[in-house]
Amino acid sequence: DISLSDRVQRIKPSPTLAITAKAGELRAQGKDIIGLGAGEPDFDTPDHIKQAAIEAINAGKTKYTPVDGTPGLKKAIIDKFKRDNSLDYEPNQILVSSGGKQSFFNMALALLNDGDEAIIPAPYWVSYPDMVLVAGGVPKVLETDVNSRFKITPEQLEAAITPKTRLFVINSPSNPSGMAYSVEELAALGEVLKKHPDIIIATDDMYEHILWTGKPFVNIVNACPELYDRTVVMNGVSKAYSMTGWRIGYAGGPQKLIAAMKKVQSQSTSNPASISQAAAEAALAGDQGCVDEMVKAFKERHDYLTAALDALPGVKCAQGDGTFYAFPDFSEAIANLDGVESDTDLAALLLETAEVALVPGSAFGAPGCMRLSFAVGMDTLKEAMRRIEQALAK
Ligand code: PLP
């Protein structure tokens, strides 16, 4: 028998990828599954971005690049941070990776010693706790609920901080809740963090552009500029430009930490794909109109879906601020259903009887809730709701 490392035994496979795979299997068996589990936009990558990749191939840009990214892409990222976020970075403060997932992984490995604590508000992106665990850290999960719009308070943050706290993670707008913190809320969290100078802050801005609060996007460094020297700003092209398969994410932050993250990457994957980097450069530097079109569609679906979910008996669904996820609280509906004890049971039931794939909230640290991606067309979404309603009525 092969004995595996303690490190790998601490973690589990990504539940969202698992649900997507399961839905794919059932579909291959001929079932008419509606997949609301996946974390990716349903739009195609815009043409001008694809064209840039084709040109890169034809121009022979098919070799290793610098580990931390091509000078052209790094410049486009620096310009983007300036343009969209009013943040200034030097090239040695930027690291391009194979997806935002790798950016975070690099950071966890570069930052955490065994036993170091990372504060992660729930509901969280499924990968944060596991990446912290693989690095030897200890996730400290802060609970929230639909009544607080799934946002933590400064008091909660303060109470969670110990001498071992090394990292605070914030993701706004949030996958899975769809909620965004206001500038005032971020400033209040920043006030707490200012008192604890050893804590590094990771702000995951992946859904920055998929936002409809009517106010400009802000992250915690915008709200509290004093945190600049210890904040890593993470972002990527997957969601905003519908480029999930290209695998490009990036981070801007303190030079010392970015250099350490680059060292980790240099000994694991080296540079992200050269062709994808050319495409990402075109995405960030090119016309941003393509983003607006997608956001318009997401908003329309959001308005329909959150209202339809909230109208279901035993279901409470708040309006989100952005992303392409709804995160309704199904706990009352679960309590009312015979043979359904948990959100995981309910997800299994909906997959079998309604043939709708969605992800149970416990995967995100929020049992009783469900995550539905609205990265499908309106007709499909309406059909999914019809099926869910029918399954709950039984
Ligand atoms: N951060 C959040 C909050 C996400 O939802 C995702 C993707 O699901 C990522 C980061 C990573 O995306 P990628 O690795 O495709 O850049």
UniProtKB/TrEMBL annotation:
SUPFAM superfamilies, per the entry: PLP-dependent transferases (SSF53383)
EC number(s) from the headed UniProt entry: 2.6.1.-
InterPro entries associated with the record: Aminotransferase_I/II_large, AspAT/PAT-like, NHTrfase_class1_PyrdxlP-BS, PyrdxlP-dep_Trfase, PyrdxlP-dep_Trfase_major, PyrdxlP-dep_Trfase_small
CDD domains membership: AAT_like
Cofactor(s) in the UniProt record: pyridoxal 5'-phosphate
Keywords per UniProt: Aminotransferase, Pyridoxal phosphate, Transferase
Superkingdom field: Bacteria
The protein's enzyme class: transferase
GO molecular function: transaminase activity
Annotated ranges, domain Aminotransferase class I/classII large: 31-388
Recorded family membership: Belongs to the class-I pyridoxal-phosphate-dependent aminotransferase family.
This protein's name: Aminotransferase
Species the sequence originates in: Alcanivorax jadensis T9
